[in-house]
Design goal:
Largest sheet: none
Structural class: mainly alpha
Radius of gyration: 14 Å
Number of helices: 4
Mean pLDDT: 87
Strand content: under 5%
Low-confidence stretches: none
Amino acid sequence: MIQGFPLRKSQRTPLLKESLSNLNPILKKVDQNFAKEFYKSLLEIATEIAKSSGGLLGLNSVGDEEAKHMNLSMLKDPAKY
């Protein structure tokens, strides 16, 4: 799936955000415990991806651009349904 996204970050980010937001109606329909754990896993993955983007010896490893998106604001927290 990711191979189909544009290489340019400015084009890729809106598409990724839209794709992730499409999970919201699905997460409302599945078991709430599963939805909460899945959401938590996505947050952990997003954090690790953001950390991997840069930094030296673990310092300032999350850039400003990554920090804006790593909380996955396009997804609603299933614990708050």
